[in-house]
Input
Amino acid sequence: MNEQLLLGLADDELVIGWRDSEWTGIAPMLEEDVAFSSIAQNEIGHARAVYELLTDDADALAFDRALDEYRCAPLVELRLLDWAHAIARRWLYETADEIRITALMDDVPLAAKINREETYHRMHAEMWHERLRDEPRFRAAVEELWPYALGVLPAGQREALSARVGLPVVDAVERGMHTDELPELWQEMTMVRRSAPAGTQW
Amino acid sequence: MVTEAAVWEAFGEIADPEIPVISLVDLGVIRSVDVSDGRVHVEFTPTFLGCPALEVMKRALEEKVAELGAEADVEVVNDDSWSTDKITAAGREKLRHAGFAPPAPRLVQLQSQVHRCPYCGSTETKLENLFGPTPCRSLRYCESCRQPFEQFKTI
Output
């Protein structure tokens, strides 16, 4: 079991869960408030389950690390408050995530369970993709985020993503560096944890 | 001395924290119960990984075993062994009776999108939202009796 790969997966799920939850209450329609909130809840649940493969204290791993110890891909860090970009990221992320998760299923039984739930995320993402695919604003958002999407996957899985998305493999925005948008999110998501004494029970 | 049958029976009294019309046994989340030397080993499989009720369920199992005078050791098994097909026939009926559409069997869902209204039984229903108030539910609308309803997702 490749621990760095699993840590990257868990960090991706945690951070995209936070980003998706930013739409709660302000999505363009009520159904999407519910959808983004529910998807966010699932993603954070997946993060917790994967952290538990790596440690006995998932909260500590999720929230007690320094910023530069997070292994998330830059794609999930971006604060995207434009609907075309938000949907483009959901679609690109779920497409990449399917390739990554299904490749893990033989070795990691949890991956198959995650994959069952992700089916609904894909249905949601594909529905929006089908609806917006010819809109110039959506196409531009997909192209802008494409190098970031490639960075979600190890090099050996990028051709598969390229075939699915229909864009060529280019230089990726790689995991390991962080965008300028992560520090503010890190402050927010670790705030309660940092403000409470160690060992606090909720 | 506590027996496995007594533990199963006691677990049948634990209501699902979010859908209290069915028990954890109906829900199919208890994979095994094994009693040896007065200790009760329980294998428990979560439904949806992000479900906030999981901790409550785990604690309820421990408390129930304590009531029987034994000590529980609840192991959470995060593999792929639970699907909505594990919900028992009795559990499905209880859900339907409470106005809550039970999940379509996986084979039905994969081949044809049949979803039955829990109120009038019509299959003339349409999807309103894949997502609902909890991770396990979608929202549908019955065209026959004009009733919106919650549909347990098939996974």
User: Anything to note?
Assistant: Chain B has a mean pLDDT of 92. Chain B touches chain A at residues 48-51, 78-80, 82-83, 128-135, 139, 153, 155 (CB under 8 Å).
